[in-house]
Design a protein that fits this description.
Number of strands: 28
Distance between the termini: 65 Å
Strand order of the largest sheet: 11-12-13-14-15-16-17-18-19-20-21-24-25-26-27-28
Strand content: over 45%
Helix content: 10-25%
Number of helices: 7
Radius of gyration: 33 Å
């Protein structure tokens, strides 16, 4: 039996690989049915669509159509070469026994017509796959899980159709899995696609040479001027002596970039050094010491918005970062500043902040001051915050002559946990956060109180796994519960109580429109809060293809009261659209407030939890 052997080495690409690479990077072209005026010949290709597209893009014969001085002998030679060229190209799609016919008609025409007919036959299927390991990982007990993962996730298993693109992709995936953990210098030392054209079967063999196992050594830092190496070590959180992990290096690089101290950060392993303690190369470019950002925006909740934010990354004398912000909105005017220390080894930071704010809460005009001091910690999945807070609020009702002043001091703990598949465009996963605080009012009579607020958000894909966006879409759900426990006659700052309504709570109502309704018809904040929302998000197809837009149907509900038994939900229903914009998800909703019997437009940009 005649057999065809394809030996493909990692650093050696034959015509099969070259053709496949070209096919992968080219765009689909229209079939060639006619040649330009004055062309040497017209080329027609008769073949299945995938083969026709491939030959139209990459057949070498296409280059000679415009050579008007071709002789008959030269054209005949080119046609013979074109048959072999077509056979190689068709083989990249897994057809190794095609019937290829070339017809040349020149009679009664000023321009010859060349017709290439391809009958591909049955595609070649994978019969067997053999993955072998050499180097340090071959007999390493600690590498058993990694070897098993490479074998289990091989993307071209037995029974699949063989194509050159799929073969190349499978090898590269295996190489990535090898070099991502412990073995950064791993390579493909040999690979073989053994094709039996007559049987239509392929036997695949690949040998992965892991090279030595690497452990991370000390950081070798370049680019520091204002900051010390200890801060870079704390931000990167890379521990010398641990096994090399590409994911850990990428995460460290992201933490350094997100810290705000650096405009750019590149983290790599020096594989030329001793594998037992290979230095981690950290190349940094520090951000400007000070930064001023001016902003302008608008939302349906807050109306037009102007803001100015100044950042000083290293305040003289203490070395802390200071972020000061001024914000002007339709119903809120605020100025505040926060001082934050560099992180310690566990990424905890000390923080001190102050905020002066005037805002409309329900029908009350509230001027408040807040001072806060404590520690906070941020990770990829969880944030924590421990702090002591002083609040003072001066509330004025439009019908009241005298303002009501209340003060309180409290100790608080807050956290947020995030397990979303991708941010800022999650399609599955969940997030949960909670705030728990306890304190006392200040003034002539001090009274203790406890405050609790918890919130949850989740995304549930509909339909089969892997086809969520393409079929039924997903459900986006959120809920929140708040409670303040204290004596009935307590005088608390209104900023410690609850209101709801608006873009991110109950649509169909204005920002903070849902609260406790007093006898005079005014609205004030209450002690208990509940909200909930269910939204069906479904992708929009344009010209048969998935777009960056989604349609939505939603139901929101929320209630605020001073007693749990008095909670009465206000409902909003509506439709909307989502756009995955370059700066985050944009939501546009038209909601109907059932209780107020009116339509309201809501717009919001970004995703936060």
């Amino acid at each position: 039996m005649k057999r065809l052997f394809l030996a493909l080495l990692l650093l050696q690409a034959g015509p099969w690989a070259l053709a496949a690479e070209a096919a992968a990077t080219s765009s689909t072209a229209a079939p060639v049915e006619a040649a330009p005026v004055g062309a040497a010949f017209v080329l027609n290709i008769l073949a299945p669509d995938d083969i026709k597209d491939l030959l139209t893009r990459h057949l070498e014969l296409q280059r000679y159509r415009e050579l008007t001085d071709l002789s008959d002998d030269e054209l005949a030679r080119l046609l013979r070469q074109a048959q072999e060229d077509a056979r190689r190209l068709v083989g990249t799609l897994g057809y190794f026994s095609p019937v290829i016919a070339m017809a040349h008609q020149s009679a009664q025409r000023s321009t010859p017509v060349v017709t290439l007919t391809v009958t591909p036959g049955e595609p070649t299927r994978i019969k067997q796959v053999t993955i072998q390991f050499t180097g340090a990982m071959a007999d390493d007990v600690l590498a058993a899980a990694q070897r098993n993962q490479i074998q289990a996730s091989w993307s071209l298993p037995a029974g699949n159709r063989f194509t050159q693109n799929a073969w190349d992709a499978a090898k590269q995936q295996a190489l990535r899995q090898l070099t991502s953990l412990r073995f950064p210098t791993g390579r493909i030392s040999a690979s073989l696609a053994d094709i039996d054209p007559e049987a239509g079967l392929a036997h695949l063999q690949i040998t992965l040479d892991s090279g030595p196992a690497y452990r991370m050594g000390e950081l070798a830092i370049e680019g520091l001027q204002r900051y010390d190496a200890a801060m870079v070590q704390r931000l990167s959180r890379l521990t010398p002596g641990t096994d090399y992990s590409q994911a850990e290096l990428v995460a460290a690089q992201q933490r350094l970039s997100d810290s705000g101290y650096f405009d750019s950060a590149f983290v790599t392993l020096n594989t030329q050094a001793d594998p037992a303690a290979a230095p981690v190369l950290v190349k940094l470019r520090e951000a400007r010491l000070q930064k001023l950002v001016l902003g302008i925006g608008a939302s349906t909740d807050s109306g037009p918005r102007l803001s100015a934010e100044h950042t000083h990354h290293k305040v003289p004398g203490i070395g802390w970062r200071a972020v000061s912000k001024l914000q002007l909105e339709r119903e809120t005017r605020a100025v505040g500043s926060e001082l934050t220390s560099p992180p310690d080894l566990d990424n905890w930071r000390w923080a001190v902040s102050g905020l002066l704010q005037n805002q409309q809460l329900g029908t009350l005009d509230v001027t408040s001051q807040r001072l806060r001091g404590g520690r906070k910690q941020s990770h990829e999945r969880i944030d924590r915050n421990l702090y002591v807070q002083y609040d003072r609020a001066e509330s004025v009702n439009t019908d009241a002559a005298q303002p009501v002043i209340a003060q309180a001091i409290s100790a608080n703990y807050a956290f947020a946990v995030r397990y979303y598949d991708s941010l800022p465009f999650p399609s599955s996963g969940w997030g949960w956060g909670a705030e728990l605080g306890g304190g006392t009012t200040l003034g002539s009579e001090r009274q203790a109180y406890t405050r609790l607020l918890t919130r949850w958000q989740g995304f549930l894909g509909l339909g089969q796994a892997g086809s969520t966006r393409a079929s039924a879409g997903r459900l986006a759900m959120r809920a929140s519960v708040g409670a303040l426990f204290a004596k009935d006659n307590i005088s608390l700052p209104s900023t410690e109580l609850f209101l709801t309504g608006g873009d991110n709570s109950v649509r169909g109502y204005g920002l903070n429109d849902i609260g406790v309704t007093l006898a005079d018809g005014s609205t004030t904040a209450g002690r208990y809060l509940t909200t909930g929302s269910v939204e069906w998000q479904r992708p929009i197809r344009l010209n048969g293809r998935l777009s960056d837009w989604e349609s939505t149907l939603f139901v929101d509900a929320g209630a605020v009261a001073n007693q749990p038994s008095e909670l009465s939900a206000r409902v909003g229903v509506g439709v909307g659209a989502r756009w995955n914009s370059p700066v985050g998800p944009l939501q546009i909703d038209l909601a109907y407030g059932v209780d107020v019997r009116r339509l309201r437009l809501h717009m919001n940009l970004g995703f936060t939890f």
